[in-house]
Specification:
single chain, about 160 residues, 2 domains, three-stranded antiparallel beta sheet, 8 strands, globular
Length: about 160
Amino acid sequence: MLTDMLKTCSSIKDVEARLGETDRDEGMILFVVDGRRDEFAVFECSSRRHVRRQSAQPWMVATNHACALEAPKPVGDSLTCHERMEEAANQLYQAATQPRLPTDLISMLADERVGQRGASLSTVYAAVACPTGGRVWFTFGGCPAASKGHWQEIDWFG
């Protein structure tokens, strides 16, 4: 489904329509960016429903915590993780200096209150993106991923 949407959807509305037509095996949180229109949204999806979440800020964060979608109580303390991400993003946005990309964003994800929750729950992959610059960085394999993985820039349109 995701690969097909990347090939066929040309707007956030197209993605939302496709989510409405397609059942999923499980829940997911999906970041969607339309670089031509400088628009973005997060879709919180269950297997049959989805909710579009937008922000009054020029940034968004998402974790495995569903904010808008009524979902079962999450495993671990995902609300605390989400709140820490929002706090860090807000601090970065309000800072007097320009952010160092991707370093500052990776540091947010590497915060142990974000990437590690207890002894058995941690992130397995992470990504940061700068849509206006057409850049994206990804890591997989470290545990927790953001602090122990090998970050690399990948082709935005790959």
